[in-house]
């Protein structure tokens, strides 16, 4: 019996864990693993840190972009550009789907161009949005995740490194103070020169599945980063609720992505 237990522990269990990792990668759940310069994180049971208080009513809608841009709506958190400010957005209406182009978390000094997720190891110096492998002939609704204004989850991920989503790792894993992110503002810009504002309501640690994000049907942005070096299974997810949308400028909304290959 002892030898059988030793065999299970030393050979079969590692093989099963390896196979599970392969399955998750194939499913797109762990294909966005990111290394960090910090030490190995200890994988624990999933943990959820949530803001207290009565949540406001969650909107369920599709935002039809106004064009030309309208003045900033009353009640937005930040004023729109003044007459002496940046050059206004062009009056030519963009074509195609609205999608995220920049993500900013001012309280964490995070400010990254956003581009579509690649098929291989994620690039450095950018954030990327997660979709599905739908055919080009299929409607946008076939994507597993949405884009700002579609009333669905926009899922953004980046490496847990300096200049990327490293500050999320720093608070959530290294300092073990994920609650400090609750209430922070997340700003997401789009190619329609619009700024969507969200508020952090929840931080989820040691997550190994996208099931919760896929099950949501509301206007939210989720940020994901890793919890340790390449190959670490658990991920940190930062969940936000929608606050408002206002017009921006092309210069603010559409920084040029300069992705770098990193290992």
Would you mind describing this structure in some detail?
- The protein has 263 residues and is an alpha+beta fold.
- The longest helix has 25 residues, at 2-26.
- The model is unreliable at 12-44, 54-65 and 70-91 (pLDDT under 50).
- The protein is 16% helix and 25% strand.
- The chain has an eight-stranded mixed beta barrel.
- The chain has helices at 2-26, 166-174, 211-215, 250-253; strands at 47-50, 100-105, 110-116, 127-129, 153-157, 185-190, 194-207, 220-226, 235-247.
- A hairpin with a 4-residue loop joins strand 2 and strand 3.
Quick description:
The protein is of the alpha+beta class and 263 residues long.
CATH architecture: Beta Barrel
Gyration radius, in Å: 20 Å
Average pLDDT figure: 76
The global form is globular
Class from secondary-structure proportions: alpha+beta
Unreliable parts: 12-44, 54-65, 70-91
Characterize the quaternary organization of these chains: single chain
Q: Whole-Å distance between the termini?
A: 43 Å
* Share of helix, binned: 10-25%
The DSSP helix count reads 4
What would CATH call the homologous superfamily? Answer: Sortase
| Topology, number of strands | 9
How many domain modules? 1
Q: Outline the biggest β-sheet.
A: 8 strands, mixed, barrel
Please identify the top-level CATH class.
Answer: Mainly Beta
């Amino acid at each position: 019996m002892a030898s059988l237990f030793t065999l299970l522990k030393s050979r079969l269990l590692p093989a099963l864990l390896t196979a599970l990792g392969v399955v998750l990668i194939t499913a797109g759940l762990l294909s966005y693993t990111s290394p960090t310069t910090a030490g190995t994180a200890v994988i624990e049971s999933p943990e959820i840190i949530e803001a207290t208080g009565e949540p406001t009513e969650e909107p369920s809608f599709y935002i039809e972009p106004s064009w030309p841009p309208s003045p900033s709506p009353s009640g937005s958190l930040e004023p729109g550009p003044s007459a002496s400010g940046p050059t206004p957005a062009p009056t030519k209406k963009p074509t195609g789907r609205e999608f995220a182009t920049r993500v900013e978390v001012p309280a964490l000094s995070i400010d990254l161009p956003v581009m579509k997720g690649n098929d291989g190891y994620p690039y450095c110096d950018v954030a990327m949005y997660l979709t599905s492998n739908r055919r080009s002939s299929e409607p946008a609704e076939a994507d597993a995740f949405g884009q700002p204004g579609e009333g669905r989850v926009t899922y953004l991920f980046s490496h847990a490194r300096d200049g990327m989503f490293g500050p999320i790792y720093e608070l959530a894993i290294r300092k073990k103070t994920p609650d400090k992110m609750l209430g922070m503002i997340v700003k997401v810009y789009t190619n329609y020169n619009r700024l969507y504002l969200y508020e952090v309501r929840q931080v989820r640690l040691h997550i190994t599945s996208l099931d919760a994000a896929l099950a949501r049907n509301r206007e939210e942005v989720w940020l994901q980063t890793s919890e340790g070096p390449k190959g670490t299974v658990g991920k940190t997810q930062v969940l936000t609720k929608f606050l408002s949308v206002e017009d921006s400028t092309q210069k603010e909304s559409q920084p040029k992505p300069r992705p770098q290959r990193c290992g």
